Amino acid sequence: MKRTIALMIALLCALQMSAQLTHTDKGAVDQNANAILKKASAKMSGTVSFTVTVVNLDADKKETFRQKVEVLYNAPRYRVKAGSMELYCDGKAVWQYNKPNKEVVVNPMSDADDDITNPARLLAEYNKSFRAKYIREEQDGTAIIDLQPMKSRPFHKIRLYIVAKTGMLKKLEQHNYDSSRGVYTVSNFKNTKATDADFVFNPKTHPDVEIVDMR
C-alpha cells in the first residue's frame, strides 16, 4: 500500500514538473498544450467526416446514439451535413436547414456558437473561452489535451486527441454535467477547395423552403 502511494506521489510530481506554464493576466498558459493546439489549428481546412456517438453514462441501460457527420471547414466558416440536418456558417450568420420540415432558421453567429460543431474555430480561438491543459502523450504519439470553459457551459470540459507530431485531430469528447458524453471520432479527412457559396444556404436551389430570419 505504501509503495502504491509513493508511486502515485512520484507520478504527480513528475506531471507537475513536466508542465510548462507561462503566467499572464488571464491566468496560466500551458505551453505544451498551446504548441500542439496551434499545430492542429493549422490543419483544419478541408472536409472532415466524423462518426458521432452520444452516450448517457448515468442511465441504467447504457444509451447510445450514433450519427455520421460531414463537415467542411475554412475557419471561422463551416458547413455541416448530418442526416436530415444541414448547417451553414459564413462566419457571421448560421443557417440551420431542417429538410423534413422544409424550414431554415437563420441566427447571428455568436461567441456561444457550438464549439464541437465548429472545431476549426475552437482550435483557432480556444484561448478566448477555455483554459487548455496538457494531460499526457499516449504510446502511439497521441497527445491528450483538456479544454475547460472559463464561463458556465452545459459541459465541464472538452477533451481533444491530437497526433502530437503532425497536429492531426483524431477525436473530441464533450463531457457534460448530466453524465452524458459526446464522442466525435474523425473517420476521414481530405483537403478540399471551398468557395464562399459553400458556407451560405442558397434559397434559389430550395424554392419550397420557408426561411425564418432571426437576425
Describe this structure as you would to a colleague.
The protein is an alpha+beta fold. The protein is built from 3 helices and 14 strands. It has helices at 2-18, 31-43, 119-129, and strands at 21-24, 27-30, 45-56, 63-74, 77-82, 85-89, 93-98, 103-108, 130-137, 142-149, 155-163, 169-176, 180-190, 210-213. A 12-stranded mixed sheet has the order 9-10-11-12-13-3-4-5-6-7-8-14, with helices on one face. Strands 1-2 form a two-stranded antiparallel sheet. The longest helix has 17 residues, at 2-18. It is globular. Residues 1-28 have low confidence and may be disordered.
At a glance:
By secondary structure, the chain is α+β, with helices and mostly antiparallel strands. 19% of the residues lie in helices and 48% in strands.
Structural class: alpha+beta
Low-confidence stretches: 1-28
Gyration radius from CA atoms, angstroms = 19 Å
Mean pLDDT: 75
SS field, number of helical segments: 3
Fraction in helix:
10-25%
Secondary-structure element order, N to C: HEEHEEEEEEHEEEEEE
The total of beta strands comes to: 14
Strand arrangement, largest sheet? 9-10-11-12-13-3-4-5-6-7-8-14
Please tell me what the overall shape is: globular
Percent in strands: over 45%
Give the N-to-C terminal Cα separation. 62 Å
Largest sheet: 12 strands, mixed
